[in-house]
């Protein structure tokens, strides 16, 4: 019975305080906030698609204040250059020496606003820092602070003057989250809070505590049957016919990479931890499948012609491949 335990009360209390502090400012968007916390705990990055004015920037900025983290925002524009992100070497005439000026990517939470407005050369400047968590300037490597989270936003309604994201970069985002409009009740509360007295965010945790939460997240138990479920889902995006989805093959040009399988496993851990458990359940992974796969499945022209979306393709795969049945191994130990 000792192997089957709930989460440490202090850990649950700390995460509850962080979420409470953010929700004092941000109204609604519970699912989006949950995904931000999942990405933070799982040390992944987030791609967010939504129209302007849905509190995307406010959510990340408030979270940074709650955990005493450094927050930076970069507005991507067509005239941006890579040095504007990562930094550059500057010549000092007084000392006749070069010095390194670090760019805004050196922060705990980095918001890349409207990332698809910058050309591929600038977008690719984020590749190294997202994967390796370091930047190389003039042959010298500089580590970014830990913890480190990149959240990039896309505007789905304005496509003029935008550039498609390179597949290599899209794959480095753990999840792509779609943010929708608030309900009428939520919008009423939003207006009341914005037009009312200012709410100051109180720091309730530190970056060191957040790093400890990330380390604890890696200890959450994931049953092998759940990992196998993730492998089957991702494999079905590459070879649908091998999983009884012969008709789906003509709609998919490229499937998801192994990063998707890793993202599903790590995401299920983080979501289980957020929900107060030290073990992942099938519903934790099922909830994250669309967010982890929707940006990694490249549809064919035939799929686009028939009006299919990545979410519909992922839904067909999920309908064909059922999640593992309970009980899981931790429940068998308890029995």
Keywords:
15 helices, 335 residues, alpha/beta, two-stranded antiparallel ribbon, five-stranded parallel β-sheet, AAA family ATPase, 2 domains, 11 strands, P-loop_NTPase, Helicase, Ruva Protein, domain 3, disordered N terminus, ATPase_AAA-3
Distance between the termini: 8 Å
CATH class of the largest domain: Alpha Beta
- The pLDDT mean sits at 83
Number of strands: 11
- Weakly predicted, low-confidence segments: 1-5
Largest sheet: 5 strands, parallel
Order of helices and strands: HHEHEHEEEHHEEEHEHHHEHHEHHH
CATH topology group of the largest domain: Rossmann fold
Give the number of helices: 15
Could you give me the name of the CATH homologous superfamily of the largest domain?
P-loop containing nucleotide triphosphate hydrolases
CATH architecture of the largest domain: 3-Layer(aba) Sandwich
What portion of the residues fall into strands of 2 or more residues? 5-15%
Radius of gyration: 21 Å
Spatially, the strands of the biggest sheet line up as: 2-5-8-1-9
Percent helix, as a range, is: 40-55%
Overall shape: it is globular
Helix/strand-derived category reads: alpha/beta
Protein name: AAA family ATPase
Domain ATPase AAA-3: 45-175
Pfam families: AAA_3, AAA_lid_2
Domain ChlI/MoxR AAA lid: 252-317
